[in-house]
Amino acid sequence: MSKKPSKSNNSPALQLGRAVEWPQTPEKAKLDRVPNPQAGTDYLVRFTVPEFTSLCPVTGQPDFAHLMIDYAPGPWLLESKSLKLYIASFRNHGAFHEDCTVMIGKRIASEIKPKWLRIGGYWYPRGGIPIDVFWQTGRVPKGLWVPEQGVAPYRGRG
């Protein structure tokens, strides 16, 4: 049986349950974590972000993506309001698709220390070319059920 983390290890000022300002950049955004009450059990958590936006670092035009974030929690869970604020901080952030997708995955992994994490970035076409970006922390824990992300490859009008 895993030992639960003490609340003293967690930030006392969670963004949950109170008004907070929208972070202006991903670097200024705070990701909150909360103790995992099922830390001794392997299970999967999925966040679906169907309306992710960032800016092209060259043209300044908006880029749109459907993000799928799957993780097997360790001692911590990712608090969803803080994820929403973090994701929103990319709206005025200029970065390539690959950088945004991997940056988000690495930041979440470093904050919550999951047993495993993967992110799929399914980017809508710009200039006629869709880009899909995938990143994960390592191997899937043995016996963990990981469903397909369920985002179809871009097929245009076909």
TrEMBL record:
<dbReference type="InterPro" id="IPR029500">
    <property type="entry name" value="QueF"/>
</dbReference>
<dbReference type="InterPro" id="IPR043133">
    <property type="entry name" value="GTP-CH-I_C/QueF"/>
</dbReference>
<dbReference type="GO" id="GO:0008616">
    <property type="term" value="P:tRNA queuosine(34) biosynthetic process"/>
</dbReference>
<comment type="similarity">
    <text>Belongs to the GTP cyclohydrolase I family. QueF type 1 subfamily.</text>
</comment>
<feature type="region of interest" description="Disordered">
    <location>
        <begin position="1"/>
        <end position="34"/>
    </location>
</feature>
<comment type="pathway">
    <text>tRNA modification; tRNA-queuosine biosynthesis.</text>
</comment>
<dbReference type="Pfam" id="PF14489">
    <property type="entry name" value="QueF"/>
</dbReference>
<keyword id="KW-0521">NADP</keyword>
<keyword id="KW-0963">Cytoplasm</keyword>
<feature type="active site" description="Proton donor">
    <location>
        <position position="63"/>
    </location>
</feature>
<dbReference type="GO" id="GO:0005737">
    <property type="term" value="C:cytoplasm"/>
</dbReference>
<dbReference type="InterPro" id="IPR016856">
    <property type="entry name" value="QueF_type1"/>
</dbReference>
<comment type="function">
    <text>Catalyzes the NADPH-dependent reduction of 7-cyano-7-deazaguanine (preQ0) to 7-aminomethyl-7-deazaguanine (preQ1).</text>
</comment>
<keyword id="KW-0671">Queuosine biosynthesis</keyword>
<dbReference type="GO" id="GO:0033739">
    <property type="term" value="F:preQ1 synthase activity"/>
</dbReference>
<feature type="binding site">
    <location>
        <begin position="97"/>
        <end position="98"/>
    </location>
    <ligand>
        <name>substrate</name>
    </ligand>
</feature>
<protein>
    <recommendedName>
        <fullName>NADPH-dependent 7-cyano-7-deazaguanine reductase</fullName>
        <ecNumber>1.7.1.13</ecNumber>
    </recommendedName>
</protein>
<feature type="active site" description="Thioimide intermediate">
    <location>
        <position position="56"/>
    </location>
</feature>
<keyword id="KW-0560">Oxidoreductase</keyword>
<dbReference type="InterPro" id="IPR050084">
    <property type="entry name" value="NADPH_dep_7-cyano-7-deazaG_red"/>
</dbReference>
<feature type="binding site">
    <location>
        <begin position="78"/>
        <end position="80"/>
    </location>
    <ligand>
        <name>substrate</name>
    </ligand>
</feature>
